[in-house]
Amino acid sequence: MNENNKSILIDIFKEMNIDLSDKQVDQFLTYHQFLVKKNEVMNLTAITEYQDVVLKHFADSLSIVKAFDMSAPIRVIDVGTGAGFPGVPLKIVYPHLQLVLLDSLNKRVTFLKDLIGKLCLKEITAVHARAEDAARNPAYREQFDLCVSRAVANLSSLSEYCLPFVKKGGMFVAYKSTNIDIEIKDSMNAIAVLGGEMKEIKEFCLPDSDIERSLVLIEKTKATPSKYPRKAGLPSKEPL
């Protein structure tokens, strides 16, 4: 079963032109096992079957390679990371990334810290904070080349959570489903107010599946005004 699991993982990543080393394969297998084990006592994911995790979590996390060059040693923040997606799979495949995992729920951050230890990852930290608060910390505000998020929020709210972390010239990439034309249109004002500019919407299917996904690429073209993000709760209750 373990050899079969390895083959499934290797083949799906090959479809994305990503060749995994033996170490990376073992890290992904350990990740899945630890995720399933911890999911029995805390709500981390509704997706636990191995092949589903590989496709809908691991491969989906790496889908950013379709639109962004991950080969440089950049600083990355994953906002609303949950069980570590997309940040931890990105770190496994691109160990040179300097990564911050941000989540508002302390028990998830505890899980992530344990996971980081199990996977022997370096230059990665898990931080317990709401995005609205962390983005006002000078250690994080406009300090990142790339912000990623698979968090479930409309793009207007998500932009207010994420764009304040991105330095000028950097990029915010939101992982979305398809059919988001109205959501995109409704977010344009927020993106502009927060110092961003819509660059590209990349639509695709996950490997060997009909699961449709989108990546929304927003470039940071100017500094975010100091009044943003607004206090905790407002970005979701009253989107810009």
Low-confidence stretches: none
Strand-pairing-aware structural class = alpha/beta
The main pleated sheet reads as: 7 strands, mixed
What overall form do the CA principal axes indicate? Answer: globular
CATH superfamily: Vaccinia Virus protein VP39
Radius of gyration: 17 Å
Fraction of residues in H or I helices: 25-40%
CATH architectural category: 3-Layer(aba) Sandwich
End-to-end distance? 50 Å
Mean pLDDT: 96
Q: Which strand order does the major sheet show?
A: 3-2-1-4-5-7-6
Count of all domains: 1
Reading off the top of the CATH hierarchy, the class is best stated as Alpha Beta
* Topology, number of strands: 7
Beta content comes to: 15-25%
Q: Please work out how many helical segments DSSP would assign.
A: 9
CATH fold naming: Rossmann fold
**H-E order:** HHHEHEHEHEHEHEEH
Characterise this structure.
Helix 7 (155-162) links the parallel strand 4 and strand 5 (166-176). The chain has 9 helices and 7 strands. It is of the alpha/beta class and 240 residues long. 39% of the residues lie in helices and 22% in strands. It is globular. It has helices at residues 2-14, 22-39, 50-62, 87-93, 106-119, 131-134, 155-162, 181-193, 234-237; strands at residues 75-79, 98-103, 124-128, 144-149, 166-176, 196-205, 212-220.
Ordered list of secondary-structure elements with their pairings:
Blueprint: H1 2-14, H2 22-39, H3 50-62, E1 75-79, H4 87-93, E2 98-103, H5 106-119, E3 124-128, H6 131-134, E4 144-149, H7 155-162, E5 166-176, H8 181-193, E6 196-205, E7 212-220, H9 234-237
Parallel strand pairs: 1-2, 1-4, 2-3, 4-5
Antiparallel strand pairs: 5-7, 6-7
